[in-house]
Design goal:
It is a multi-pass membrane protein. The protein is mainly alpha-helical and 567 residues long. The chain is 71% helix and 2% strand.
Length: 567
């Protein structure tokens, strides 16, 4: 069967499964729409959290970044994984014991202020919009290639599908859909990785193949890759070109941004007890690690195959008439292009002026089975996995946007007398508006998928993280300090990103960056600014009421922690 037939079959089967689950687990109340009624098993919640967490950035784009920039791409691996540990240990159990649906709910009650809640709602919507734009772009990349349509058309198709099952099922539908999506995406990621590892190194474990010698040779895989990239004018694969300070700041922004991401935090409210929140976090880390430890191997295998298939074994280029099928397939999407600069009819790929190929980083994982000449069904399986990854996270983010609008903005803000039915309707309307906005940003993206997602982590780090940490561990933190800190942090970070990415992109070089920190890492500086402003303003404004101090003290004690708060 052709790739397209396999794709329709496998994607159709997985979508039928997701939509069937969404209908079976349809939300009937706000409790089921927001937190799945609080009755999800820790292992299932761990799988759902892993699917929610591993977005299009993890599945499609992360290995693509590592494949193209080598050593420096590892910062995404370290930051995102480390951030999850921070979230599981320092925040999730305490927020779970506090018993609030959403981050703005926590901030509104902890800082005894409607203004604090509104600032948090704005930050949650802004962060989630930035993140979901990256997911819609990822969905568009998959659909563009496998339906052989323009990428913008692919994004519009994805918008319709996400809308259907996120709006219908709420958190209950999304949780069980995400369990299925985790199984699909991990199987889809590992099968081609294992096949390619056996073909190239003889090892069935990609993580070991990554450090092994190539079949029939005494040359190590990374040694060959370094030689190829250097010869073709790229920087050596295993050398880093980013400054130490920038690597540190990006890594820290991704870590603390994780701990402030609203759509991941909300997952810890879907289990019955606080203990289960910790257990499900442990399971999620295990499920996430399977993909994250495989990604560098997938990146290296794909990079070698990419160079070999375009430049040929002798590195002199291949005739355009005999171009590998993956190039012609991806050219239809506009994500791969060839310009015959020297009119010799040969394609050539390099890192200097000889280069004739334009290759989008986001295609590398989806193209990897074609690069390795794997069977058509493996190519189609990866398409199903890429869609599972992008759609699972998009659904979680849309839920955050819709609950922020209906629960925090309307119910707890402007319209406290809303009935439950009206609140549920407002949540669904909020999700619809969010999908349209995210689709627009997917069609006009400010960067490639992982880069857009990195911005949202920086925004979460600079706005939410200090307010949550101080709210849990410093009972003397008052509302004026928290509000000032959040506004200062997100304004500084957003302004920096917008200036270098939209207003003056030509200036986006390390010479012009503040202290040499790139827009991807500036969230760490925004977080530091948030902490400083919060603590300074706190010192000169009214003390926290005693009842709030007592409440904060009680969050950190284990007694009564076994019971879930009833809503």
């Amino acid at each position: 069967m052709e790739i397209q037939s396999w794709t329709f079959l496998l994607v159709g089967m997985t979508f039928t499964l997701y939509i069937g689950i969404a209908i079976w687990a349809r939300a009937g109340s706000t409790s089921e729409f927001y937190v799945a009624g609080g009755g999800v098993h820790p292992v299932a919640n761990g799988m759902a959290t892993a699917a929610d967490w591993m977005s299009a950035a993890s599945f499609i784009s992360m290995a693509g970044i590592i494949s193209f920039i080598g050593y420096d791409g590892g910062v995404y691996l370290m930051g995102w994984t480390g951030g999850y540990v921070l979230l599981a240990l320092c925040l999730a159990p305490y927020l779970r014991k506090f018993g609030k649906f959403t981050v703005p709910d926590f901030i509104g009650d902890r800082y005894y202020s409607k203004t604090a809640r509104m600032v948090a709602v704005f930050c949650a919507i802004f962060v989630s919009f930035t993140y979901v734009a990256g997911q819609m772009r990822g969905v568009g990349v998959v659909f563009a290639r496998f339906l052989e349509v323009d990428i913008n058309m692919g994004i519009i198709i994805g918008m319709g599908i996400v809308f259907f099952y996120a709006v219908l099922g709420g958190m209950k539908g999304i949780t069980y859909t995400q369990v299925a999506q985790y199984c699909v995406l991990i199987f889809a990621f590992m099968v081609p990785a294992i096949f390619t590892s056996i073909m190239m190194t003889g090892s069935p474990i990609p993580q070991l193949g990554f450090g092994s010698t190539l079949n029939g040779s005494e040359t190590y895989l990374l040694e060959k890759l370094d030689g190829l990239t250097t010869e073709l004018g790229f920087t050596p694969y295993t050398d880093g070109s980013k400054s130490m300070i920038d690597v540190f700041f990006i890594c820290a922004a991704l870590m603390v941004g994780t701990a402030g991401l609203p759509h991941v935090i909300i997952r810890f409210f879907t289990v019955p007890k606080v203990k289960d929140a910790r257990i499900s976090a442990g399971w999620a880390l295990l499920f996430i690690a399977i993909l994250y430890t495989t990604a560098p191997a997938v990146a290296a295998f794909a990079r070698i195959n990419l160079i070999d298939t375009i430049n040929g074994p002798d590195l002199k280029g291949v005739d355009a008439e005999q171009a590998p099928s993956w190039i012609t397939n991806w050219q239809k999407t506009g994500l791969v292009a060839w310009e015959d600069k020297n009119n010799d009819g040969k394609m050539f790929y390099s890192g200097d002026e000889r280069n004739e190929m334009t290759i989008n980083r986001d295609i590398i994982v989806l193209a990897s089975p074609e690069l390795a000449k794997l069977p058509n069904w493996v190519v189609a399986l990866l398409a199903a996995g890429g869609l599972a990854a992008a759609l699972s996270t998009a659904a979680g983010l849309l839920l955050v946007i819709s609950t922020s609008i209906s629960h925090d903005l309307l119910k707890k803000g402007f319209r406290p007398n809303m009935t439950e039915k009206q609140e549920l309707l407002a949540a669904r309307a909020g999700a619809a508006v969010a999908i349209i906005g995210a689709g627009y940003l997917g069609i006009n993206p400010p960067g490639f998928v992982a880069e857009v997602v990195a911005f949202s982590f920086g925004l979460a780090a600079s706005s939410f993280f200090p307010a949550i940490i101080l709210g849990i561990f410093y009972r003397g933190m008052n509302k004026a300090g928290a509000i000032s800190g959040m506004i200062a942090g997100i304004t500084f970070t957003a302004s920096y990103i917008i200036y270098f990415k939209f207003i003056n992109p030509a200036a986006n070089i390390s010479d012009n960056w503040l202290f040499g920190i790139s827009p991807e890492g500036i969230g760490t500086l925004g977080m530091c600014l948030n902490f400083v402003v919060s603590l300074v303003v706190n010192k000169f404004t009214a003390a926290v009421p005693q009842d709030v101090q007592d409440m904060v003290e009680s969050i950190r004690y284990p007694q009564g922690a076994g019971e879930a708060h009833q809503h």
